[in-house]
Amino acid sequence: MQSNRRTFIKGISAASALVATESIAKPFGFPAYIPNLAKISPNDKIRIATIGMGIQGNFDTQAALRNPDVELVGVADLYTGRLEHAKTAFGKDKELFTTRDHREILARPDVDAVLVVTPDHWHDHITIAALKAGKHVYCEKPMVQHLSEGKAVIDAWKKSGKTMQVGSQRISSASFQEAKRLVQAGEIGAINYIESNSDRFSAIGAWNYSVPPDASPQTVDWDRFLGDAPKRPFDANRFFRWRNYKDYGTGVAGDLFIHLITGVHFVTNTLGPTRIFSSGNLAYWKDGRDVPDIMACIMDYPKTDQHEAFQMVLRVNFANAGKINDVTRIIGNEGQIEFSENNLIMTKKKLPIAPGYGGYDSFFTFTEPVQQEFVKGYDAKYPPETRTAEPVKEVKFTAPKDDDAHAKHFGDFFANVRSGSQGTLEDPVFGFRAAAPVLACNESFFEQKVVHWDPVTMTQKKLDKVPSTPKKKIIASAKGTNRKT
Ligand SMILES: NC(=O)c1ccc[n+]([C@@H]2O[C@H](COP(=O)([O-])OP(=O)(O)OC[C@H]3O[C@@H](n4cnc5c(N)ncnc54)[C@H](O)[C@@H]3O)[C@@H](O)[C@H]2O)c1
User: Fold this and answer.
1) Distance from the CA of 248 to the center of ligand 1, in angstroms?
2) pTM attached to this predicted model
3) Cis preceding-peptide flag for 31 (omega within 30 of 0)
4) Which neighbouring-strand residues pair with 72?
5) Considering the chain, what is the average pLDDT of its residues?
6) CA 117 / ligand 1 centre spacing (Å)
């Protein structure tokens, strides 16, 4: 099956022509599951290995295995407990090859594809090594940890001829596909603003995941975990709660903004923003972390042949003890699309041509004769048919119960592997264009500057300093660790 992005989008446009704006309860034109139409035989199995069998490694592996003719043959992880757990969870009746050294996975001829599900600072190294070793790669988001690392991954992918998918699986959901169809069909007019917030107020939500009591330099390969990060003594918190440290993770931007940005890029066909500014603070989780727990970001997306210029405003607040009302809205000049977990609501609203007069307006401040003259002119210019707005319409979409975005995202990857195509839904060019704005958010925050980005060439442009903002403690403590930017 040739399930590349271009044919997928073509399919969407065709479906769009049939769009009606009444209430909908099922997807138009999208199967709940993208089937693998390529030749499948018992011997045609794709043999995968997971590198990084932590929380998402388990979920990714399960989602991959929900596709037909996929077999797990190996696991690499740096904590012995997770290798043992993998043997019980996935080995079942047969022996599962496990190792602490991902290079042993890459050297195995029986591995066709690897899932790179390590902390962010390992993504580029393992992905490039895997492509060079002739493996297909499914790499978790964000594709890379720093802006400077994207090109090398793209080059390695192009040179390898292998299939690669970046793992922001939500764009394979029926909701995002429906949003794309609606936006591409012009249902909400020209997009002018996108906003999203993703707040939390819990220790686990703020990434303080459980640390196993047997964590030690014996059960954890600490040196390998550090990789190219600064050397330091064993620290179980840094290993099991790596998101809290900029040496290994990408903060709230890389963890949460990335999903929305990927979705927006998918829905709008945009290449990315040109200007990115973020600000933030460490307000509550002062537990040794060196990344902010509150971050807001503004991005300017320029007009292209695919869309008008729009602004995107994102926020995460891990210290929101108030009412949490997470929302994602794509606002156009004829309506908006609002997302919730598995649903979306489109509200269509179009202004009448006639602007109206009276009410809170300057009209009442005119003299009587001027008011009469104004009304005469208004009546001549705006006949009755220009005065009524179209009735507001609300269109609800609920994803089918069996919609399995995660398995579908892998399904697209495997279909491309089988057909020898590099045209996945989220190939590394798309993946880097989505990652770049979030990495720029971090750069803007830590270096107190506006980041200028060229989304076409995927290169950083001259930087502006934001004048006179005092540097905060969190920035000072993190100074000097931003090695690769
Ligand atoms: N797509 C999504 O919705 C989604 C959700 C959660 C996490 N993620 C991404 O998945 C990745 C992993 O996140 P997580 O929450 O599973 O973290 P985790 O800490 O639970 O698991 C990471 C695992 O990687 C292992 N590891 C670290 N370095 C390694 C190396 N060099 N070789 C082999 N194994 C190594 C660790 O031992 C650990 O078990 C991150 O990039 C994260 O951004 C994506």
Assistant:
1) 10
2) 0.88
3) no
4) 48
5) 88
6) 4
Question: What pLDDT band is residue 339 in, cutting at 50, 70 and 90?
Answer: confident
From the CA of 241, give the closest atom in ligand 1.
19
Q: Which token pair is 102? A: 């991902």
Q: What are phi and psi of 25, to 5 degrees?
A: -125, 5
Q: Which two tokens stand for residue 374?
A: 């104004």
Residue 10: pLDDT over 50: no
Long-range contacts of 464-471 (CB under 8 A, 24+ apart): 466/277
Q: In what order do the strands lie in the sheet with 327-332?
A: 393-398, 343-348, 335-339, 327-332, 191-197, 310-317, 294-301, 275-281, 449-454, 459-465
Ligand 1-lining residues (CB < 6 angstroms): 51-57, 76-79, 82, 102, 117-120, 122, 140-141, 167-169, 224-225, 242, 255
User: pLDDT tens for residues 454-481?
Assistant: 999 999 987 555 555 555 544 434 433 3
CA of 169 to the centre of ligand 1 (A): 15
pLDDT of residue 16: 29
Q: Whose CA is nearest to atom 8 of ligand 1?
A: 56
Name the residue of 125, 140, 149 to mutate for ligand 1: max ligand atoms within 8 A of Cβ: 140
**CATH fold of the domain at 178-226+245-351+388-400+431-478:** Dihydrodipicolinate Reductase; domain 2 (3.30.360)
Q: Residue 468 and residue 380: Cα distance in Å, rounded?
A: 54
The residue extents of the domains of the chain are: 5-172+403-427, 178-226+245-351+388-400+431-478
Nearest-CA residue for atom 18 of ligand 1: 54
